[in-house]
Amino acid sequence: MMQTWTSSRFRSSRALDLKRFDELAPEQQNAFRELQKDDDFYGLLVPRVGGSASLKSVGRQTAQLFASLDEPSRLDASLMSDAPYREDIIDLILDGILEIEIGGAFCSGADAFRIVASELPDAIDRGRIGRLSREALQHAEDLSTRDAAAITNALYLYHRMPRTRVWESRFPDRDAVLRSIGASEGPTASLLERNWIRTPASPESVWISWQALVRRPANDSVTWKLYVSPHPGQIADAFHALVRVLADIPGSQMKIGHDAAGLLRPDKLIAYFGTQDDLDVAGRALMSELRGCPAHGVPFTAEWCAPPARPGTEACQRPAPLETDGLLSWGVDPPDSERALSWLERESWRLWLARTLGAALVFAKGATRPVVEPWRFAIERVRRHGVDVDTWTPDETLWRSVA
């Protein structure tokens, strides 16, 4: 990493205002009051232009640094000699909280990338799912919008198949899906009756879900999930195989899309486990049962192979056979304890990734003199957040509950 940037001048972002909690508007205080439980919480960084960025909560040390750099200055050399401190400064620059002086002008984000980052991130092209993930990022970069919600949506929904009249007539509703996958009668229905409880669906739910009859104690740990992604024409075979395999794994859960739209999304059939050992058992069995099944493929997940890549270890070097490439993949949902605010819904791993990547893409697309493509900048941001961008899984340090 280049060291010359450490002697540059820095300043706090001119796009953000630092607000103590008691300076916030009443509606903002009500929304973020729970953050006061953290003794380190100071307040929020609020965009000066509405809609230009999201609110960011900050601790006392970051707030003190931000306030101290209202007037540009160099940072303490003794602090900058500390590697963890330098890494924190890099993150603050890449996130647009601090700006660094380059050639007499101050910049941050993608404009400052080559100064504070050692090299461009790799293209992320490991296997079919790696290619799909890269294509999703490039697609989102090409969109003319800089709306964070629209970019997040484009990433999350990427690789859905078109809703044609043929698919709509085949899977018009929940009952049609249940009949098509054999959940109403026949061998699959018998297995479901013996081993599973159908979860009552809320009116707004887009899933049909089941909970195993034999359960394990509930906890707040991370949730391991296995994505089974066949072509929708083979959904019945995939579902029957999953029901057979999960019958031998206590405590597992599963869900499937409830209509044509749900079965045309890549993440159409998902199984949930309390441990990765259970996920591995299911993956090995399904790989054998579904060999040759045409795959759809879920972007921003880790392609499954035996043994699978795990967080903090070297990524799997042996891709799945071509005929099952992308059929099985996995991810890890954040634990419930990672919600800073109780009113926030628990996010899935893919949605968290899409939001984080989307925010970075939007910020990079607004760069004035970018030195890195926005999609590559987004990859670097999530890598520095603690994501293994070869496998799209969290490093062990990302969540306290991952150990």
Structure description:
- With 403 residues, the protein is of the alpha+beta class.
- 36% of the residues lie in helices and 17% in strands.
- The strands form four sheets. Strands 8-9-11-12-10-14-13 form a seven-stranded antiparallel sheet.
Give the arrangement of secondary structure elements:
Blueprint: E1 9-12, E2 16-20, H1 26-32, E3 41-47, E4 56-59, H2 60-68, E5 73-74, H3 77-80, H4 83-94, E6 98-102, E7 105-107, H5 113-116, H6 127-142, H7 148-157, H8 165-170, H9 174-180, H10 187-195, E8 196-199, E9 207-212, E10 223-228, H11 235-246, E11 253-257, H12 260-264, E12 269-273, H13 276-289, E13 302-303, E14 328-333, H14 349-365, H15 374-385, E15 387-388, E16 393-394
Antiparallel strand pairs: 1-5, 1-6, 2-3, 3-4, 6-7, 8-9, 9-11, 10-12, 10-14, 11-12, 13-14, 15-16
Overview in brief:
This protein has 403 residues and is an alpha+beta fold. The protein contains 15 helices and 16 strands.
Radius of gyration computed on alpha carbons: 23 Å
Distance between the termini: 29 Å
- Structure summary, number of beta strands: 16
Summed over residues and divided by their number, the pLDDT gives a mean of 85
Fraction of residues in helix? 25-40%
Structural class comes to alpha+beta
> How large a portion of the residues is in β-strands, by DSSP E?
15-25%
CATH A-level architecture of the domain at 165-296: 2-Layer Sandwich
**Main sheet, how many strands, which sense, barrel?**
7 strands, antiparallel
Name of the CATH superfamily of the domain at 165-296: phosphothreonine lyase
What is the 3D form?
elongated
Low-confidence stretches: 317-324, 336-344
Number of helices: 15
CATH topology of the domain at 165-296: Phosphothreonine lyase fold
**Assigned CATH class of the domain at 165-296:** Alpha Beta
Strand order of the largest sheet: 8-9-11-12-10-14-13
